[in-house]
Each structure stands twice: as structure tokens, then as C-alpha cells.
TrEMBL record:
Cross-referenced InterPro entries: FAR1_DNA_bnd_dom
Recorded superkingdom: Eukaryota
Span of domain FAR1: 12-100
PANTHER family: FAR-RED IMPAIRED RESPONSIVE (FAR1) FAMILY PROTEIN-RELATED, PROTEIN FAR1-RELATED SEQUENCE 5-LIKE
Gene name linked to the record: FRS12
Protein name: Protein FAR1-RELATED SEQUENCE 12
Amino acid sequence: MDFASDEEMYMFYNKYARRAYFGIRKEYGNKCRKTKVLTSRRFVCDREGLRGKDVRDHKTNRARAESRCGCDACMTVILNRDTKMYVISEFVQEHNHELHHSSTVHMIRSQRKMFVAQEIETDIAYDSGIRLKDVYQFFSTQVSGCDGLDYISRDQKNYLCTKRQ
């Protein structure tokens, strides 16, 4: 497959990940030093890698649950300098962990996104004095439950905070 931009690559792998019930993240991206053009990018499962040893381990009462398990699923894309298009060079499909359930896949960080229309409606409702919790409840009832929304209430709050800044 060929891609024209970094955003197009991310959207493709994210759609695949949604259908396969896992989350993704960008591991690295290499750029040309002279032209600053992206030459390669690697997308990985959000459970790739292992957490390093924390120096505060002896002071911790309740450690956080382990979220990384060394999953090898990935997609590496490189720039074809002749066609100026990005081409998939490596694709690993196998996971070494259980995947998310279909009813919870909308809550994975890489899958959450507020659309422009939802941002505008949030602005209007918040400016009219409605609490954020009530705005989120209203939007979720419009789409017959929170599962129909592509974001969580925290994303709505973060959107308003960044807008104010």
C-alpha cells in the first residue's frame, strides 16, 4: 500500500486496529536532516515494550498495574524517494496478549476523537452555562448511550482546557 502523508498512515493503521480490537501508538519517526521530510515511521501496539525499573519502587505502597507486555505487533512505513510515497516495509499481525472486547474498543486512547461538530456543540453548550457533565450526558443520549460517542467525558474537558489556553 502507498500513503501520501503521515496522517494518512496513522488513520489507516488506527482503523485496522479498531477492527482488530487493540490500540496503537507511534514508536518513532525518522526525518531527513537536510529537508526535514519524514523518511520512516513505526506504529506499534499500545502494549509494546516493557516498563523500566522505577527507582521509587521501595517507596511505593500500591504499584500501578502493568500495561506493557512486550507485544510485537507493528507496522513500519518507509519513504520511497522515487515516487515520494510511503510504503509499508514491515507488518507484524500477531499479539501476545488478550485483545480488547468489541464493546470497549471505543475507549482506547488511539480510538477516541472529538469531531469538529461535537467541539462546536460543546462550546455552545458550555458558553450557555450548562455543566460539562450534563453536556456529555446529553450527547450520549442523542446517540443512544456512551458507546455511540467516539470520546469520553475527559476528552471533552481536555478540549475546553486547551481551547482556553
